Amino acid sequence: MPNNAKHNPSLLVATPAALENGRHVYTVSELTRGIKLILETSFPAVWVEGEVSNFKAHTSGHLYFSLKDTDATLAAAIFMPGSRQVKFKIEDGLKVVCYGRVNAYLPRSQYQIIVERIEPKGIGSLQLALEQLKEKLAKEGLFASAHKRPIPYLPRRVGIVTSLSGAAICDILKVLDRRFGELNIVINPVQVQGDAAKDEIARAIADFNIFNETLPARERIEVMVVGRGGGSMEDLWAFNEEIVARAIYNSKIPVISAVGHEKDWTIADMVADVRAATPSVAAELITPKREDLKERVRGLTADLERSFLNTLSLCRDSIADILRRMQLGMDNALRLNTNACLAAQKKLLLLNPAVTLGQYQRQVSDFARQILVRMEHVLKMRQALFFAAADKLRSLSPLSILGRGYSITFRMPESKIIKSSADLNVGDTIKTRLNEGEVLSRVTEL
Hints:
Structural class: alpha/beta
Number of domains: 4
CATH architecture of the largest domain: 3-Layer(aba) Sandwich
Shape: elongated
CATH class of the largest domain: Alpha Beta
Order of helices and strands: HEEHEEEEEHEHEHEHEHEHHHHEEEE
Number of helices: 11
Helix content: 40-55%
Strand content: 15-25%
Strand order of the largest sheet: 3-4-5-7-6
CATH superfamily of the largest domain: Succinyl-CoA synthetase domains
CATH topology of the largest domain: Rossmann fold
């Protein structure tokens, strides 16, 4: 306590009317004002540590609690708007260090400390707030892998939520343009640090989802990148806010979180469908290289050609099998009918009475006609199957296309089929196969 407060009696001097027999007689108000003056003058600003108890958050936004140790209890309060600056959750049993000023409340003769700054003892306030929010959101399932969706392969339209003035947007656009410049990119610019950043980021994510609902399916944003470049924990704090985490979790558009550098982890990273180490990596996750796509197309083309040749070979084998079966069927039918004819002849010879000779002759003639009719019928059926198979073979043959006025062009000398002008260079020799004959040419212009 300052010396002038200890030894200056003028601080507690009574008015002349209150002097009785040389004694100083105070009113209650005078005494409490004097105590208030001594307290507030002696302790204008102090640091004090203790354990939180009886914590209560008022609807007005003020926070009330007590600080206690083994021997004493001190009332404490954090008034608006200072309470909004407290990042972590104050709760009973938490050990804290507070900075503030001592204040005496005259109507009740009570004193308390008006806290201007509060920190958890032994751990930073931001770190504690981060751990508390992580625990809360984990219990609600916001980090669960079952909720995470895959990023679409080669999306047509990409949404980006970040600052227009930061390095992150430059890095993202540079990588996207280099790898696949044909993407449609929509940017919703926001602040990425400061008090307003969390609300802007959450609103931008929600706006993208609302915007998507107004568009046809082919024009919708298929993936969203949310992030910023590197910085301190305080700089990245907007991406640790609960409002941003819930906006990402509720997004119907898959979200890639790209906050800071590889060593930086935020709650946004943990809630997002995919976490990218940097904004540049996020752009790489969205788009494959153009060269990789070309190589994949070449592979698929080769697979298609092999499949076509395999199908053609199978058709040839199938037709050959049908022809073999037809021949076997015709041979078998002929053999059966021949045997029947021979049997009838033998029976005729065995039963050769003169009176029934004419009857048996007619029967033999009928049998002969039936045999011919059945043979002709079987032959026509087999011919129809043969012609149908032959027509199918001709329709599958690439050469049949030439008869309709088309041609096939090969690059010489390797005789490689040309499917695109990109496969040719000026000066190349090409051979064009027509329905009748071939033509050799040289490329003079592409």
